[in-house]
UniProtKB/TrEMBL annotation:
Pfam family, one: EPSP_synthase
Lineage, highest ranks first: Bacteria, Bacillati, Actinomycetota, Actinomycetes, Micromonosporales
UniProt-annotated location(s): Cytoplasm
Subunit structure: Monomer.
Residues noted as binding 3-phosphoshikimate in the record, renumbered to the chain: 30-31, 35, 173-175, 202, 317, 344
Pathway listed: Metabolic intermediate biosynthesis; chorismate biosynthesis; chorismate from D-erythrose 4-phosphate and phosphoenolpyruvate: step 6/7
Gene designation: aroA
Residues of the active site: 317 (proton acceptor)
Name of the molecule in the record: 3-phosphoshikimate 1-carboxyvinyltransferase
Annotated coiled-coil segments of the chain: none
GO molecular function: 3-phosphoshikimate 1-carboxyvinyltransferase activity
Role played: Catalyzes the transfer of the enolpyruvyl moiety of phosphoenolpyruvate (PEP) to the 5-hydroxyl of shikimate-3-phosphate (S3P) to produce enolpyruvyl shikimate-3-phosphate and inorganic phosphate.
Length: 432
């Protein structure tokens, strides 16, 4: 499958000479945009997605849905229109490096009539996929996968999935559960999915899935721990208003903390489906003041960065940026509970241990995280491993440490193509 990935773009992270006060306007949540696209594609009428994220992950998701017969009009940046159509192959889906596509679209493909091939970036083939594929097979889907159980794979859609009961070990990714649940109302018998194994990470993402399913009209029962039941039935087209991406905002908040300034994320809703409470607790423990007002969500640096001990299993996406703050803190930190991030865009534990150590920190690796002993950091070339959040972490360190260069900043296009320019503007005092 021909695949286009951005050329590596080396980048010198700007260092900050003074605290800054800025308001940032960021695009929509990746996770909400991905779910809205899938639910809209499976609905019984058209949908509108307001303030979506336009980035590599969501554009590849859009392309994948179009290949399956869905009409997605993305001409207007603020308002995407989705018109469901009969799902059909033959089709090819490039998942890029997106967990959301490789886990959310195979169930949709199994509902299509025809053959749908999936592949992605080289590292996408190493990301865990087997449990969701095996669960889909047990629910009646016909799928050929690689010997490792992952990409590349071919879904031989029969136009329906029988559904019923399935057991899955979703300890490697909550997206296995989300992927099955999002399509489940369209399974002939619905779905009763039971997780068996070590805890499922990223609970807030699971709640986002069930909230959005209900908002689309699905009947979902999650009253029994580790069991999700979805009744068969129609989902309705609707208007989805996407919240600004909280994980994408994390490096900007960290910038306020590192420089002793303030960053406001504008457009933040009074009630959110993202884990703002957990982020607030963590940033406050490190030394920030977090407030919410009509202007948005504001994080103020207090001039203090404390080390923390935290289990990040619920918010593992935040690990790289929190690790950067830990390396700049006034005491040691232990960030644990995230073994599964070894299966993210790269092995994030190994990558953070390697790169923070190179910059001068003393880092001890554990199976499920690491301990960071801050030391004076020095200039370094930070390898980004095609991982947007490794680039964010390097940029945060670069604010305080002159001479931090990144092997590639183009990888930030996965979730925020404007990152280098927004970041440089922020440091230069230009509001976005
Ligand atoms: O469902 C989602 O949108 C996501 C779930 C989480 O995945 P894991 O449970 O694999 O960590 C998160 O880390 C990822 O960035 C987005
Ligand atoms: C883990 C992440 O992405 P994905 O959706 O590709 O799993 C992430 O964005 O931090």
């Amino acid at each position: 499958m021909a695949r286009v990935t951005a050329e590596p773009r080396p980048w010198l992270a700007p260092s900050a000479s003074a605290p800054f006060s800025a308001t940032v306007r960021l695009p929509g949540s990746k996770s909400m945009t991905a779910r809205a696209l899938v639910l809209a594609a499976l609905a019984d009428g058209p949908s509108v997605i307001e303030r979506p994220l336009r980035a590599r992950d969501t554009q590849l998701m859009t392309a994948g849905l179009r290949a399956l017969g869905v009409t997605v009009d993305t001409a207007d940046d603020e308002r995407w229109l989705v018109e469901p159509g009969p799902l059909r192959g033959p089709a090819r889906v490039d998942v890029g490096l997106a967990g959301t596509i490789m886990r959310f679209l195979p169930p949709v493909a199994a509902l299509a009539e025809g053959t749908v091939e999936f592949d992605g970036d080289p590292h996408a083939r190493n990301r865990p996929l087997r449990p969701i594929i095996e669960a889909l097979r047990s629910l009646g889907a016909s799928i050929d996968s690689s010997p490792t159980g992952g990409l590349p794979l071919t879904v031989r859609g029969a136009g329906l999935i029988e559904g019923g009961e399935a057991v899955i070990d979703a300890s490697a990714s909550s997206q296995f559960v989300s992927g099955l649940l999002l399509s489940a109302p369209r399974f002939t018998k619905g779905l009763v999915l039971r997780h068996e194994g070590p805890p499922v990470p990223s609970a807030p993402h699971l709640r986002m899935t069930t909230h959005m399913l209900r908002a689309a009209g699905a009947v979902v029962d999650e009253s029994v721990p580790d069991v999700w039941a979805v009744e068969p039935g129609p989902m309705h087209g609707r208007t989805w208003v996407i919240e600004p991406d909280l994980s994408g905002a994390a490096p900007f908040f960290a910038a306020a903390m590192v420089t002793g300034g303030a960053v406001t994320l504008s457009g933040w809703p009074a009630e959110s489906w993202q884990p703002v409470g957990r982020l607030t607790e963590l940033l406050t423990a490190i030394g920030a003041e977090v407030t919410q007002s009509g202007d948005g969500l504001t994080v103020r640096g207090t001039g203090q960065l404390h080390g923390i001990t935290a289990d990040l299993s619920e918010v593992s996406e935040l690990t790289p940026v929190l690790a950067a703050l830990a390396a700049l803190a006034d005491g040691p930190s232990e960030l644990r509970g995230v073994e599964h991030i070894r299966g993210h865009e790269t092995d994030r534990i190994a990558a953070l241990v390697a790169e923070l150590s190179k910059a001068g920190a003393e880092v001890t690796e554990f199976r499920d995280g690491f301990r960071v002993e801050p030391r004076p950091l020095h200039e370094t070339t930070f390898e980004t491993y095609a991982d947007h959040r490794m680039a964010h972490a390097a940029a945060v360190i670069g604010l305080a440490v002159p001479g931090v260069s990144l092997t590639d900043v183009a990888c930030t296009s996965k979730t925020l193509p404007e990152f280098p320019e927004l970041w440089a503007g922020l440091v230069a005092g230009v509001e976005s």
